[in-house]
Design a protein that fits this description.
Rossmann fold, 3 domains, 6-stranded mixed β-sheet, binds adenosine-5'-triphosphate
């Protein structure tokens, strides 16, 4: 679990994060969503320590990450896996060598053990047959899967993914989402995803933090979204007429069948997720 307590960050006289508190839960896919410039990337960079917060506290499983020196942070950092936007693979290395890279940098154990671990991870993301290929020889979706294999090779406790679906078609995106979700559950990882992808939001959003102008505007699950009355969230998620109609139809269906009680833990219809703090 990662806890953010009232974090603030500015650049010059521009305030970007204006006191954000949120919890990224273990064994869940936690999504950070919001329009361009709302502060999602800055928040994620603060969480991994690439940017220092001006105020507030970030805790990893109760340990105050913000108050640690570099040596203490190293221990936490070794438990973090990262999937970068565009996969960020080394073009001159094979798929296998790319996945081996974190093990060579931080891993212990023999070369044989490392090879075995790489093979396990490639098998897990269904890329066993691509081990000897170079990034230029594989598709965008395969590159993402190599990125995922590399991100999990050190058995991370926390996984950060920056726009994991960028540049992918909707079906491949869903496969990537499913894979990330499966791994999150399988290894009880605290996964944090920065995304614009509405399919991801609706399919994988166990826990969603919606950012608006540097503040947490809304928090809830993908199920809560259908019942939310938050105007800013609705304008963001259901941006088109088509999606607004789809939402209304879904709401009507869930209310009339009484299924809204199963879909959301809220006390009353129309009150989904409105817990801005
Ligand atoms: N190093 C920096 N120096 C100055 N301003 C910055 C810096 N990093 C980010 N910003 C500013 O912070 C604001 C929020 O940026 P951020 O990248 O977090 O947005 P975002 O929500 O991730 O947007 P997008 O969805 O487009 O990636 C922007 O106005 C950006 O220009």
């Amino acid at each position: 679990m990662i806890e953010l307590q009232d974090i603030k960050k500015g650049f010059g006289d521009k305030e970007i994060l204006k006191g954000v508190s949120a919890v990224m839960e273990s064994g869940k896919v936690n999504l950070i969503i919001g329009s361009s410039g709302s502060g999602k990337t800055v928040m994620m960079k603060c969480m991994v320590g690439l940017i220092e917060v001006d105020a507030g506290i970030i805790k990893y499983d109760g340990q105050n990450f913000s108050g640690m020196d570099n040596q203490q942070r190293k221990e936490i950092r070794q438990k973090i896996g990262m999937l970068f936007q565009g996969s960020a693979l080394f073009d001159s290395m094979t798929v296998e060598q790319n996945v081996m890279f974190p093990l060579d940098m931080f891993g212990t154990g023999s070369y044989r053990d490392k090879k075995k671990r790489v093979a396990e991870c490639l098998e897990r993301v269904n890329l066993k047959d691509a081990a000897k290929k170079f990034p230029a020889e594989i598709s965008g979706g395969m590159k993402k899967r190599v990125g995922i294999a590399r991100a999990i090779v050190l058995n991370p406790k926390y996984l950060f993914c920056d726009e994991p679906n960028s540049g992918l078609d909707p079906q491949t995106s869903l496969l990537i989402d499913q894979l990330i979700k499966e791994l999150t559950l399988e290894y009880n990882i605290t996964t944090v995803i920065n995304t614009h992808d509405m399919n991801t939001v609706m399919e994988s959003g166990d826990h969603i933090v919606y950012m608006y102008q540097g503040q947490k505007q809304w928090e809830g699950t993908n199920k809560d979204i259908v019942f939310s009355n938050d105007q800013l969230l609705n304008d963001f998620i259901f941006a088109s007429e088509f999606l607004r109609e789809a939402k209304e139809m879904r709401q009507t269906e869930l209310y009339s069948s009484g299924k809204w009680k199963e879909e959301t833990k809220r006390e009353a219809p129309g009150n989904g997720g409105e817990q801005k703090k």
